[in-house]
Amino acid sequence: MIDAITKISQMTVRFGRKPALDKIDLSLRPGESVLVAGRNGAGKSTFLKCLAGVIIPDSGRIEFAPGLDRRRRIKRLSAGERVLYHLGLLTAQKPDLLLVDEIIHTIDPYMRSRFLDALIDLMADYRTTVILVNHAFSEVERIPERILLLDGGRFVLDESAESLRARIKRVVSAAEIPAQLPVIFRRGPEQRRMHYIHPFQERFREQFSLAFEDLDLEEIMKALIGGRYAQERNS
């Protein structure tokens, strides 16, 4: 018996020689909302398919809490006109675990808002654990409590959304900023170069005469994912 709704131990999935998921360990708590992010091909959909039982891992274990009925599956939403039907089905089933894989961008803004409101209601009313994979992070800003960043088949970051907002800041400056600052990514033209700082510490405000800007989830994920690309180019 496990306390978590889902517990993953040393889960590995290989497509050819290179692992798509490499010895992943993860626990998911009842009622939490999690965003799984990463570069294209990082293994996000593979991860969800393993949880859904569509892909069987090559090694490792996935354990589910005894109260979770995995036979109750909700079909992937594929068209805007089916959203309301599926929302009703989703609510009626009161799912313990809901996997949402890149479907929000396929529906219009009104339906998208209705869908996100339904997710929030599910989490509030039934303590549904929601696992999201989505590239348009601004659309799901109010959903995730926890952020997982997948890269190279492993989770390289597992942090609360609140903590990430406090620990990632941006400095806009045409001049180079002090080398002591942990810059993970730079972008933009020279006259308005954006420098993303992680991990940010409050003492930096007194130590450096710079304007540290707060970021929304969209900018935070751009910085984290862009930083992984930059790290790969420089290695």
Any overview of this molecule?
The chain is α/β, with parallel strands linked by helices. It has 2 domains: 156 residues, P-loop containing nucleotide triphosphate hydrolases (Rossmann fold), CATH 3.40.50; 71 residues, no CATH class. Helices cover 29% and strands 29% of the residues. The chain has 6 helices and 11 strands. The strands form 3 sheets. Strands 5-6-3-7-8 form a 5-stranded mixed beta sheet. Strands 2-1-4 form a 3-stranded antiparallel beta sheet, covered by helices on one side. β10 and β11 form a beta hairpin. The longest helix has 18 residues. The radius of gyration is 19 Å and the shape is globular. The model has no long low-confidence stretch (mean pLDDT 83).
Question: Unreliable stretches, pLDDT < 50, 5 or more residues?
Answer: none
Instruction: Provide the CATH superfamily of the largest domain.
Output: P-loop containing nucleotide triphosphate hydrolases
Could you give a short account of the major beta sheet?
5 strands, mixed
Give the overall shape, derived from the CA principal axes. Answer: globular
Task: Give the strand order, joined by hyphens, for the main sheet.
Answer: 5-6-3-7-8
Query: What Rg is obtained from the alpha carbons, in whole angstroms?
Result: 19 Å
Number of helices: 6
Q: What's the CATH topology name of the largest domain?
A: Rossmann fold
Question: How many distinct folded domains?
Answer: 2
Structural class: alpha/beta
The rounded distance between the terminal residues' Cα atoms is: 43 Å
The oligomeric status of these chains comes to single chain
> Which CATH first-tier class of the largest domain would you pick?
Alpha Beta
Looking at the overall shape, the CATH architecture of the largest domain is: 3-Layer(aba) Sandwich
Q: In percent, how helical is the residue content?
A: 25-40%
The percentage of residues in β strands lies in 25-35%
Average predicted local confidence, pLDDT? 83
Q: What letter string, H or E per element, gives the SSE order?
A: EEEHEHEHEEEHEEEHH
